[in-house]
Design a protein that fits this description.
The complex is a heterotrimer of chains A (about 230), B (about 400) and C (about 290). Chain A has 8 helices and 10 strands. With about 230 residues, chain A is α/β, with parallel strands linked by helices. Chain A has a 6-stranded mixed sheet with strand order 6-7-8-3-9-10, with helices on both faces. In chain A, strands 2-1-4-5 form a 4-stranded antiparallel sheet, with helices on one face. Chain A is globular, with a radius of gyration of 17 Å. The N and C termini of chain A lie far apart (about 35 Å). Chain B folds into 2 domains: about 250 residues, Rossmann fold (3-Layer(aba) Sandwich), CATH 3.40.50; about 130 residues, 3-Layer(aba) Sandwich (Rossmann fold). In chain B, a hairpin with a 2-residue loop joins strand 13 and strand 14. Chain C contains 11 helices and 4 strands; from the N terminus they run ααααβββααααβααα. The longest helix of chain C is centred in the first third of the chain and has 29 residues. Classes of the chains: A alpha/beta (about 230), B alpha/beta (about 400), C mainly alpha (about 290). Chains in contact: A-C, B-C. Chains A and C meet through helix 2 and helix 3 of A and helix 6 and helix 7 of C.
């Protein structure tokens, strides 16, 4: 279980998060919605250790991880698929997957890779292509697959649908649904509310660095869609 | 009148030996100083000692040796009372193998330290930049370690302790050519310093005048570490003689790589073959086997005051044998002290005159002087031919045999 | 001619070794490290001191490599890490490496009393090996073999091992590597250590070749190392090897056919020529894909 308590993130004088509290239970899918610049990405970065919170705590199964290095947080079971996909462009698709499995026991790597290729079939044909030359959809699939290679208990995904054609976005969503079936929690940051609501059970809306609403997708779904769809 | 002067100077030269003999033993009575009163001399006589101790690794071992020799002489001079109650105060500067440093320090020595004379300079280029300043200001200079040409040409205040090496080659090389019946020669030299390139030019001219044909000329610079290309070219030319003039610091490198190259030509080197950088390097000295060179000095020389110098040096330095640069530093400072004593003055022009009249000076480099009117400012000693045999330098004559 | 080509390759082998260390440091840290010149010297001195203390030569070489590696890591973890954390510019980092160079150089100069030390080569291969009509000094043959071996091992390590992939990932983006579980600081330290070891190896071969060692020996070698990686392509392992060999050959041929005096000038003119045609060097890749 991941718990954020009054999390505050600052970049110099800019307060990106102003005391956010939320909980991601085990085996849950939580969608974080909100406009551009609301602080969603900053929240994920704080969770993965990429930025240090200015104040507040991040508890992971009771352990305070708010000042840990990212590589240690991953070892505790939280993977972060950052915005922009963070491809290691000069490495091949297979090498990217192998890097994803950096902390995975050697005996499980091949099995994991097979499962990822099943989940994201387009990657199969491109294993020896460098990641930099993949299409946007393929890159997104690779980014998620790579995040899953470490067998995380929770995967935090930043804007998986960004820049993708609707059909491709649907494929990615289907794969995420399959991930949830395996018991991995998902913390999904999205601007595409319709897409997020199809997957998530719980929804948190963030604006101006603060939680503006929280509830189940049934409770909030209608209002949110009304607010988002112009 | 002239004869009498020479006689007196000779006598004083001998006194210097006596004083040296007293060494640093303090119990010895103050020398009677041959009737001259030291009252005209100040209590402290400042002498500038600009030497290249650091800077380029190619100079290392040279300047430090010279400085050790100078200090050795100063200790002897001061503790023996050679200048009566006056003491020599050496003002030392490391000129770091840099011309600008040499110039700056020379100006400083003359204008702020007010030295009476200068005993210094390790490198010909540094001296050629700084020497004219001393000449212009009328400060006598005994140049310690310069082997290049054009030193005394700077002016009548300039004297040199080390002779122009071209004179050494003029002495030794004809004997080597005759003994080896050589008809062809290859040259390997350092092209980026005046000293080594000047020596190459002089030697080549000399050998060609003796009928030795030039079959290959290869160059290296201070930055060269690998010489296989040059050595292969020399090997292909198959010369009788290989004439090498490179910076002392690079000689081990040349020797070691030469040893691997399969070149069989007779090696004609320079004084570096007798320097600690080579003799202390087992691989280099082994590769130098049968190498020939002419040197102004070897530790085993029995000429002049050398045996005494060597024994005193050993006594003062835990039994260590002095090297060439120690000997140069020692003689240069003693010569200056002798001139000051003879002049009985620290007036620069009187010191200069006294320097030019020194003869019968019994130093480490033999019994010599600076009074040859045909070569003003230059020392009058000759050279010694040597050969490297089984890791040691031995005296060479045309009947000496050597097997590789 | 054939013999001279062999000479050029042998000379180039040492150059490649120099280039490999610098290319690794550049590829991972993106800093031209001037202190590298002193890693060369300190490593060689480590070996010298070990040999003087009767350590067998092979172990003495390993000790020298370890000394340079540790010095390199120490410098990186103190000065460089400090400056990186404060977000200093790349240029300021380079200036800092020059400062470190002077500190290390002064210490080496002081400890060696500015003297040229004799580097004992009794334990190194000597003599020469005949290959057809040509002959090659055994020492140079060994340095050629080791350069090639280092290239293969380094290539294998970077491309085929878990740690090597992690190194390439850190080189590409340290934050991304961290997200994948890589301790990027440890990888920096590892790359710097290996780079220091390679510096020492080059320094030791250089010292053995001349049987002498002085505190300033690294200076000229650093210039060569920079030339090699610029020619071969910054951060490219293959480029460092090919660049080194090319440089060696060009130097030998110019020494032979033009003059030893112009050998450097011509070599560097040629590098400029290559850079005009290929701005990223022979095997250079664009900025985003180094090592």
């Amino acid at each position: 279980m991941l718990v954020l308590e009054n999390l505050e993130v600052r970049y110099g004088k800019i307060r990106a998060l102003r005391g956010v509290s939320l909980t991601v239970p085990d085996h849950a899918v939580v969608a974080v919605l909100g406009p551009n610049g609301a602080g969603k990405s900053s929240m994920l970065k704080a969770i993965s250790g990429t930025v240090r919170p200015f104040a507040g705590r991040i508890l992971w199964n009771g352990t305070d991880i708010s000042r840990m290095a990212p590589h240690k947080i991953l070892r505790l079971g939280i993977a972060h698929v950052p915005e922009g996909r963070a491809m290691i462009a000069p490495l091949t698709v297979e090498e990217n997957l192998q890097m994803g499995a950096y902390i995975t026991p050697r005996s499980e790597i091949d099995d994991m890779q097979d499962r990822m290729l099943e989940l994201f079939p387009p990657l199969k044909a491109r294993l020896s292509t460098t990641a930099g030359s993949l299409s946007g959809g393929e890159q997104q699939m690779l980014a998620i697959a790579r995040g899953l290679m470490s067998k995380p208990k929770l995967i935090a995904i930043d804007e998986p649908s960004m820049g993708l054609a609707p059909a491709v976005a649907n494929d990615v969503l289907a794969a995420l649904a399959a991930i949830v079936q395996t018991g991995t929690s998902v913390l999904l940051v999205e601007q595409n509310a319709a897409l997020a609501l199809r997957l998530a059970h719980d929804v948190v809306v963030i604006g101006h660095g603060e939680v503006q609403a929280a509830g189940t997708s049934e409770e909030l779904g209608h209002d949110i869609l009304a607010a988002y769809v112009e | 009148m002239r004869f009498r002067t020479i006689k007196i100077v000779t006598a004083l030269g001998l006194v210097s030996v006596l004083a040296a003999a007293c060494g640093s033993s303090k119990s010895s009575s103050t020398p009677t100083s041959a009737g001259s009163s030291s009252s005209a001399l100040p209590a402290t006589i400042k002498i500038g000692v600009p030497l290249d101790l650091t800077g380029s690794s190619e100079i290392t071992g040279v300047g430090t040796g010279e400085w050790a020799g100078v200090q050795f002489a100063v200790n002897q001079i001061n503790s023996s009372g050679f200048l009566g109650t006056s003491k020599i105060d050496p003002v030392m500067f490391d000129t770091q193998a840099s011309k600008t440093e040499a110039v700056q320090r020379t100006v400083e020595l003359i204008s702020s330290d007010h030295v009476s004379a200068i005993v210094g300079y390790s490198l010909t280029p540094s001296f050629l930049a700084a020497g004219p300043i001393a000449q212009k200001d009328g400060i006598p200079v005994m140049a310690v370690g310069l082997s290049g040409a054009g030193v005394t040409e700077v002016g009548n205040y300039i004297f040199r302790e080390l002779l122009d090496y071209t004179k050494l080659y003029a002495f030794g090389d004809p004997q080597f050519v005759k003994a080896t019946h050589a008809t062809t020669a290859a040259y390997l030299y350092g092209s980026d310093t005046v000293t080594t390139s000047g020596q190459y030019a002089a030697r080549r001219k000399l050998l060609e005048s003796l009928g030795v044909k030039t079959v290959a000329v290869e160059t290296i610079t201070a930055a060269t570490t690998d010489m296989q290309a040059q050595l292969t070219a020399i090997k292909d030319a198959n010369p009788d003689l290989l004439v090498v003039n490179v910076d002392t610091g690079q000689v081990p490198s040349v020797l070691v790589q030469l040893g691997e190259s399969g070149i069989t030509a007779q090696y004609l080197g320079d004084t570096s073959l007798g320097s600690a950088v080579v003799t202390g390097n087992p691989a280099a000295i082994k590769a130098a086997q049968c190498g020939l060179f002419t040197t102004p000095w070897v530790p085993t020389s029995t000429a002049g005051g050398n045996p005494l110098f060597v024994s005193q040096w050993k006594a003062a330095n835990n039994g260590q044998t002095p090297d060439f640069f120690d000997a140069l530093g020692r003689d240069a400072m003693w010569a200056m002290a002798t001139a000051i004593k003879n002049a009985n003055s620290v007036n620069p022009s009187q010191i200069r005159d006294a320097l030019s009249q020194i003869s019968g000076f019994s130093g480490a480099l033999g019994l010599y002087g600076w009074n040859n009117p045909a070569a003003p400012g230059q020392p009058t000693y000759g050279g010694v031919n040597e050969q490297v045999q089984n890791g040691q330098d031995v005296p060479w004559t045309s009947s000496t045999t050597c097997t590789k | 001619m054939l013999q001279q080509t062999v000479n050029g390759i042998a000379l180039g082998a040492t150059y490649s070794l120099l280039g490999l260390g610098v290319t690794l440091i550049w590829g991972v840290l993106r800093v031209l490290n001037f202190a590298y010149s002193q890693f060369i010297v300190w490593g060689a001195f480590g070996t010298l001191i070990a040999i003087e203390n009767h350590v067998p030569t092979v172990f003495a070489v390993l000790i020298g490599m370890a000394v340079a590696g540790v010095v390199a890591v120490f410098v990186d973890m103190t000065v460089m890490q400090f400056m990186r954390r404060r977000g200093t510019s790349e240029f300021a980092l380079v200036v800092a490496t020059i400062g470190v160079y002077y500190i290390l150089s002064s210490v080496a100069q002081d400890r060696s009393k500015s003297q040229i030390e004799t580097f004992p080569i009794g334990g190194f291969p000597h003599g020469s090996v005949d290959i057809g009509s040509t002959s090659l000094p055994s020492l140079q043959l060994l340095s050629l073999v080791i350069s090639v071996a280092v290239m293969i091992v380094l290539g294998y390590w970077l491309n085929r091992t878990r740690l090597g992939r992690a190194t390439r990932t850190v080189a590409y983006s340290a934050p991304t590597a961290e997200l994948l579980g890589v301790n990027s600081r440890a990888i920096f330290a590892l790359a710097v250590f290996v780079s220091g070891c390679l510096a020492a190896l080059a320094g030791i071969f250089n010292a053995a070749d001349s049987s002498t060692l002085s505190y300033s020996d690294g200076d000229q070698l650093l210039v060569v190392a920079f030339a090699v990686i610029v020619l071969g392509g910054m951060g490219s392992v293959k480029g460092a090897v090919i660049g080194g060999l090319a440089l060696g050959l060009v130097q030998v041929y110019t020494t032979l056919y033009v003059s030893g005096v112009f050998s450097n000038a011509i070599t560097y003119l040629l590098i400029v020529g290559v850079l005009i045609v290929r701005p990223n060097g022979l095997f250079g890749v664009r900025e985003e894909a180094r090592v």
